[in-house]
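Quick start: what a row looks like.
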Amino acid sequence: MTTDPAEAIAQLQAATVRLKERTSALAAAREQREAARKAEDVKTAEARRRGEQGRDWQVLQQRIDLGQTSEFAVIQGLDTSVEARAIRKAMGQALGRFADEAEAEQEGPAPIPPEMAEAQQRLVDTLQRLRESTRASGLQ
């Protein structure tokens, strides 16, 4: 740390310049990611309009284009149309298959960390004692 005020000011100015450069670089990277995402969204919407992702998405994309629903509403369950329900069901099945494949690649479920295994065992023991005390008191 310097005691010279002029040097301290110069260091602060240099740090400010570096901070501005970093902020500008991050903003540019964010804008680039957003532009790429928007371009991908356009391609996806066009594929849906052509029916490349199935009839349900084709119908939903028409409704999205008309402002009657949104992709968010479809995915989050706010759109309760037959097509949206079919899409959510298909997504759930796909996620289930993905989870099964990931589990198979790991040759079984992911190992439980020791702390979690201990906590799980304490919970089992507590529930067992609770059941036993409930039976003993005749509350069951």
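That is the whole record. DSSP finds five helices and no strands in the chain. The helical segments are 5-49, 55-65, 71-76, 82-105, 114-137.
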